[in-house]
Specification:
Pfam families: Lactonase. Belongs to the cycloisomerase 2 family. By secondary structure, the chain is mainly beta. It has one domain (33-380): YVTN repeat-like/Quinoprotein amine dehydrogenase (Methylamine Dehydrogenase, Chain H, 7 Propeller), CATH 2.130.10. The chain contains one helix and 29 strands. The chain has one helix spanning 2-19; strands at 33-38, 45-51, 57-64, 80-82, 88-93, 98-105, 109-117, 122-127, 132-137, 143-149, 156-158, 164-165, 173-178, 184-189, 194-199, 212-215, 221-226, 231-236, 246-253, 259-268, 274-279, 285-290, 295-301, 307-316, 323-328, 334-339, 344-350, 356-363, 378-380. It starts with a helix and ends with a strand.
């Protein structure tokens, strides 16, 4: 009887241990999903991968946009964007001034449903929570170009067929991104080291110019993204100085006259040419990619939106790998990085302390991602 009781308790304990989630893992229980990479080749295309529960990727197809890339990287963040419900994918074609809309079918396959004019040299696109989209045009006179998004069909309808200028025609924009409530958006300007803030009306029309243009906390602000809160995360290239890349955070005071207030002023990571940034869904961690030093840097984020460096080199992507766009799985468990120099996608599982554990090195090499030839744009769920 005693043996049976002990055996029963042991089996119960063992079952509980096996069923308990690993404390080393971060985010919700890993689920399946997909990752998409934009070739930005002359004949532009999206390379699609299904994502397994362990974060590994399997190529599922190559899907032409029907448009033209420019063969050199965008030098912007956000050239490929998924809708919040993962039903539609939006890809820019900078060499022919169009955006392609795909329907996502069977998890990772794509069906082209629209190609629409989006201004001169579209480089980045942001989707709002209120059913609108703005494209960042990077031509000689940079600006933003707006659309209404049909949430049922994913199709884009131009708001005005006109580009709204940013604060500087030679600012060299880095990205466009909507605030969480959809009532404002920002554009980073690298050369002028400023961040433009536009208001967006309930009908989707942006102000006819930035309401404010604030000085960046660091040199050459590049990629930027809002978390679910009103905290804006901006990575700074820091060039021409070496080892000068950093991450700044800002709080958005919204309303009719949105204002950005600095929280973290360029928390340096000792890397060079920081260009891309992501933040986990719960806003506990942020990651940046530095192009020249091939490093992924990790940051912890406090509840008040301030960011603190964890490691300047959380992951090294390899000599000549040229890391560009970053993307997170929607469950916050996996981080992906498009390697322009290698023609591949690096993958990591995010650990509970924000550290990164490599998953199989990289994926997609030799499967259609151009090598050292301008691949730009990464999206995942």
């Amino acid at each position: 009887m005693k043996f049976s009781t002990l055996a029963s308790l042991s089996l119960t304990s063992l079952t509980a241990v096996l069923a308990a989630p690993s404390s080393a893992s971060y985010g919700r229980s890993p689920s399946k999903g997909a990752v998409f990479a934009l070739t930005n080749a002359v004949d532009n295309a999206v390379i699609a991968f299904s994502r397994n529960e362990d974060g590994s990727l399997v190529k599922t197809g190559t899907f032409p946009t029907g448009g033209h890339g420019q063969g050199v990287d965008f030098d912007t963040q956000g050239g490929l964007q998924l809708s919040a419900d993962h039903r539609f994918l939006y890809a820019v074609n900078p060499a022919d001034d169009h955006v392609t809309v795909f329907e996502v079918v069977s998890g990772s396959s794509l069906k082209k449903i629209q190609s629409v004019y989006a201004g001169d040299q579209p480089l980045s696109i942001s989707l709002s929570s209120t059913g609108f989209a703005y494209v960042l045009d990077g031509s000689v006179a940079s600006g933003i170009f707006g659309f209404k998004v049909d949430r049922q069909t994913g199709l884009l309808s131009p708001l005005t067929n006109a580009t709204i200028a940013t604060s500087s025609p030679i600012g060299v924009p880095g990205t466009v991104t909507f605030a969480p409530d959809g009532h404002s958006l920002i554009v980073t300007n690298k050369v002028s080291s400023t961040i433009d803030v536009f208001s967006v009306a309930s009908n989707g029309h942006a102000s006819l110019g930035p309401l404010t243009s604030v000085a960046s906390s660091g040199l050459r602000p590049f990629g930027a993204i809002y978390g679910k809160s009103n905290t804006l995360y901006v990575v700074e290239s820091g060039l021409p100085a070496l080892g000068n890349a950093g991450l700044s955070t800002y709080h958005l005071n919204g309303g009719e006259s949105p204002v950005l207030e600095p929280l973290t002023k360029s928390e340096k990571n000792q890397q060079t040419d920081g260009c891309w940034v992501v933040v986990t869904p719960d806003e506990k961690f942020a990651y940046t990619a530095s192009f020249i030093t091939a490093a992924i840097s990790s940051y912890s984020v406090a509840k008040n939106g301030t960011a603190t460096l964890i490691k300047g080199v959380e992951a090294f992507t390899g000599e000549g790998s040229e890391p560009v766009d970053l993307a997170l799985s929607s469950d916050g468990a996996y981080l992906y990085n498009l390697l322009r120099g290698s023609g591949a996608i690096a993958a990591w599982k995010i650990q509970a302390d924000g550290s990164l554990k490599s998953i199989g090195g990289s994926f997609g090499k030799g499967q259609g991602i151009p090598v050292a030839d301008g691949a730009s744009g990464l999206a995942a769920y």
